[in-house]
Amino acid sequence: MVDDFKERHRTGAVGLEEVRGFIRFSSHLAGCYNRFSCDNSSAHSIIDQMTNSLAKAKSENRFIPWAYVFADYSVSGLNPARQGYSSYKAVLGDEDQPIDTTYIDDFTRASRDELEWWKLAHSSKRLGKRMVGASDGFDLNSPNADIMITMYGLVSRLFIKGLRQKVRRGMKGAVSRGTCVGKVPLGFTRRICRDANGEVVRRPDGRPRHEPCIDPVTQPHRLEMYELYVHKNWSPYKIARHFNQQRVDGSNSWTASSIKKLLKGTDAIGIFVWNRQRREYDYELEKYVKVQNPRSEWEIYKDPDLAIVPKELWRAAWLKLLRIRKAHPLTGRKWTRNQKSASTLFSGTLFCEHCGTELQLARSAGKYKVMSCRAGSLGAKDCALTTSKSTQIIEDCLLGHIGDHLLSEEVIANLVERANGYLEEEASKPRVDAEPMKAKVRNYQGRIKKLVKQVEQEPDGTLCDGYHTRIKELQKEVHDLKRMIREAEVHNQPPPAPLDVERAKVYLADLRELLHQEIPMAAEAIRALTGPIRIRQEKIPGKRGARWIAKFSPDLVALLRKVAKDKGYCDVPTLTAIPSETQSVEVVIEKVPKYERLAPKFKQLHDNGASIQTIAAAHQISWAYAQQILAFAETGKRPSWGPSKKGGKGRSKAAKYKDISPDVVRMHDDEKLSFERIAAALHVGVSTVCRAYDYGHPELSRQAVAAGMTPNRRRCSELGEEKKREVRKQLRLGMRVQEIAKRFGCGRSTIYLIRKQMETEAAGDKAS
Question: Are 664 and 527 found together in one domain?
Answer without folding.
Answer: no
